Amino acid sequence: MSSIEDPIDDLSVTPPKRWATGVPAVTHALEYSLEQTSVRRTALTLLNINQVKGFDCPGCAWPEPAPGKRHLNEYCENGAKHIADEATTRRVTRDFFRRHSIAELDTKSDYWLNQQGRLTEPMVKRPGAQHYEPIGWDEALDLLAGELRRLDSPDEALFYTSGRLNNEAAFLLQLFARAFGTNNLPDCSNMCHESSGSALQETLGIGKGSVSLDDIHHADLVFVVGQNPGTNHPRMLSALEETKRNGGRVVAVNPLPEAGLIRFKHPQKARGIIGRGTAIADRFLQIRPGGDLALFQALNRLLLEAEDIAPGAVLDHTFIDDHTTGFADFAEHARKVEWDDILTATGLTRDEIEGIHDLVLESKKIIVCWAMGLTQHKHGVPTIREVVNFLLLRGNIGRPGAGVCPVRGHSNVQGDRTMGIWERMPQTFLDALGREFGFTPPSRHGLDSVDAIRAMRDGRAKLFLGVAGNFVRATPDSQVTEEAMRRCRLTAHISTKLNRSHTVCGEIALILPTLGRSDRDVQATGEQFITVEDSMSEVHASRGRLAPASPHLLSEVAIISRLARRTLGETPDIPWEDFEADYGTVRDRIARVVPGFEDFNARVSRPGGFRLPNPVNQHVFRTPSGKAVFTRNDFTMPDIPDGHLLLQTLRSHDQWNTVPYAMDDRYRGIHNARRVVLVNPDDLTALGFADRDLVDLVAVWHDGVERRAENFRVVAYPTSRGSAASYYPETNVLVPLDSVADISNTPTSKAVLVRLEAARTPGSKETAWDE
Questions:
Q1: Beta bridge partners of 753
Q2: Residue 271 falls within a domain, yes or no?
Q3: Closest by alpha carbon to 664, among 576, 769, 760, 584?
Q4: Boundary of a domain, candidates 406, 435, 458
Q5: Are strands 118-119 and 694-700 parallel, antiparallel or unpaired?
Q6: From CA 293, how far away is CA 352, in angstroms rounded?
Q7: 278 with 264: CB under 8 angstroms?
Q8: 479 with 425, same domain?
Q9: What secondary structure letter does DSSP report for 740?
Q10: What does the H/E/C string look like for 148-213?
Q11: Which residue of 83, 266, 283, 421 has the smallest Cβ count within 10 Å?
């Protein structure tokens, strides 16, 4: 597979699309699938993805409709590509690693590494070696267990996960880590929705969303804030189309116009094939990055003033009096927010904001959906708290058709947290875990993703185990992260495919290949299934249908169980062999430890599974006061000096998390390139640059360190004034490790202060894409 070429940067630009999906999405998905595998294998995967007896899409966490209401093709373009990427017939064998040194692999792009195919057997890099070499499973796990036992403290180990992990493996991983003696369980949520969890836990008593698909369908008004459904979770557009067909309205709030929120052509409906599709957003607020806090403060002030004019006709005083606390303090503060500040922070006009206020007054049931555009700012937590204030004012929490909807970006990231993958799990969970397995879990908080990098950098963490994901490319401050990883005694990754994290090695490095979501999983007691939890707390089964990519693959459950048995021995008394042989025994233990999972095996065996209870929907708030909390959130906005722009990092359309599937961003009109920066034409003129100029992106932060991303092509684009946008992971180098959201410690990837400089080392048109 090494003959696959690294892509060449040859930028072409077409006008941004004004609609998303339709026939082109189907065509692109099939083309990619057939590049990766056969017609038969493509059909087998597509007919089983997101079906009751099939497997859950390993892509986004958007929920499926109830059984009986699902389409035969219940997936989106990106889901089809994601599963084709996993089902590929390309293979990475020992011969591949013999041909390519680690240093050579480190020069390759994310695209090239991913395109080599599925990993097929365990590999090891020994101290001083330049190549990976084969290693048997027993030796590999003995090596890893031996290094764990040799640590001076359990807290020198890090156990990282991404949202691809299933519930059973996630539960076992956190059990293993805590039985080993540490709460160092960083995960991908630390870098995306941690601000959501922090804000919702403080205000509502639970760090999850409160709505269902049915709520979305029957809402009067849905805000879609700081997210791009057309690329990141396209099946959300089907739900919003249903909202519109039921008479609801949609407000899009984003620095960039996104095609899917302009018009949606449903590829499974005649109106999406031969018709004009459905206009989704009734209003589009082209906000400046970081201005969302000011927007919701403005809406809240307007609601309070409307109540002054018509007492009892605007706010839900019964709900406020019975179920909330802190209203008076909040209201006093909200009335003092200045319009000049609001308009400066948002870049909107007062008429635009008051127009949205009118829609709010006309709507009884309101939902606010959001993603990284809100969470990855220094003031991400206050912003989401202000969203909660907005919903509380009119009782739009805990009733049908209304509520909070943080849209998770990876298939089981919410399930991982439910299973205990968190460095700060509550003591009630730890006590239940200890009672079930007869040991005392550590109570001291562990390290999240950012603090894990700091610990490796400073020599306080010496062993990194990554279960799924691509930690090196998902994290900020790329150079610092890579140097930190290389300081480790051992780095190990449980993976399906090759990625950049495998090329950034500790003194010893292991690649432990695992089954994919679509692979059949057969253990001693027969064929197994796993479970996942989606963005709306629906828990359901997933059953792989494909023959495994190699006879040498182990499941994540098996790898964790065998490693734990070797590391911990017989103490504590945890039946790791039983867990590997029968995943039902894992679910039995989950049922006794995790609230809401009672009778887990029986309930998840029903078609469609079950929904976890959310106490918010019964107006039960597990806060110290027992009520939902209004909060005071000080006005703040990013400070953008003259000559600078506020850069947000984002995905291209042909990308899943850190892995691009192609060099295109079809909906934004970017083709054959990724090192591009999108800038408003008026800003380009003011800064003295022209469309297609070659520039370096330079970020200078309070630490005085200049961070530079070189050789980006400027593209004049309708971004909001004062802002810019560019793709990650190429721009992660610009985000300092210490630039994080208050409270949540989430990297500020949507608020990178940059200036443009003429490229110092201009590359030719033939410059390879990777750094």
A1: 646
A2: yes
A3: 769
A4: 406
A5: unpaired
A6: 16
A7: yes
A8: yes
A9: B
A10: HHHCCCHHHEEEEECCCCCHHHHHHHHHHHHHHCCCCCCEHHHHCCHHHHHHHHHHHCCCCCCCCH
A11: 283
Q: Is the pLDDT of residue 1 over 70?
A: no
Least confident of 412-421, 540-549, 629-638, 758-767: 758-767
Mind giving me the DSSP string for 585-628? HHHHHHHHHSTT-TTHHHHHTSTT-EE---GGGGT---STTSSE
Q: Where are the beta strands (DSSP E) in 14-96?
A: 20-21, 91-92
The C-alpha atoms of residue 605 and residue 407 are separated, in whole angstroms, by 26
Same domain assignment for residues 186 and 201: no
Residues 571 and 659 in one domain: no
Q: Give the containing element (helix H, strand E) for 294.
A: helix 292-309
Q: Contact at 8 Å (CB) between 383 and 373? A: no
Residue 764 pLDDT exceeds 60: no
Position 760 pLDDT exceeds 70 = yes
Is residue 394 included in any domain, yes or no? yes
Helices assigned H by DSSP within 310-376: 317-323, 327-334, 339-346, 350-361, 372-375
Query: Are 185 and 220 in the same domain?
Result: no
Specify the length of the chain in residues: 771
Closest by CA to 196, choosing from 430, 473, 472, 414, is: 414
The Cα–Cα gap between 553 and 646 comes to 45
Contact 399, 365 (CB under 8 A): yes
- Positive or negative, the CA dihedral 669, 653, 28, 1 is positive
Q: How confident is the model at residue 271 (pLDDT cuts 50, 70, 90)?
A: confident
Neighbours of 78 (CB within 10 A): 27
Residue 488 is assigned to a structural domain of this protein: yes
| pLDDT digit string, tens, across residues 285-305 | 999 999 999 999 999 999 999
For tokens 């970017």, what's the residue? Answer: 670
Domain range for 684 = 645-758
Distance of CA 481 to the CA centre of its chain: 19
pTM exceeding the 0.85 threshold for the entire prediction: yes
- Distance, in Å, from the CA atom of 351 to the CA atom of 548, rounded to the nearest integer, reads 58
DSSP characters for 667-690?
GGTEES-S-EEEE-HHHHHHHT--
Q: What is the pLDDT of residues 530-579, one digit of tens each?
A: 999 999 999 999 999 999 999 999 999 999 999 999 999 988 889 999 99
pLDDT surpassing 80 at residue 272 = no
Domain count, the chain: 4
* Single residue among 406, 427, 444 that ends a domain in this structure: 406
User: Of 463, 413, 375, which Cα lies nearest the Cα of 657?
Assistant: 413
CATH for 745: 2.40.40.20
Q: Write the pLDDT tens digit of every residue in 411-446.
A: 899 999 999 999 999 999 999 999 999 999 999 999
Return d(Cα 518, Cα 743) in angstroms, integer: 37
pLDDT the model gives residue 701: 78
| 417 and 553 assigned to the same domain | yes
User: Could you give the CA distance from residue 556 to residue 469 in angstroms, rounded to a whole number?
Assistant: 13
Answer whether residue 7 is part of any domain: no
Q: How far apart are CA 613 and CA 181, in angstroms?
A: 31
253 and 287 inside one domain: yes
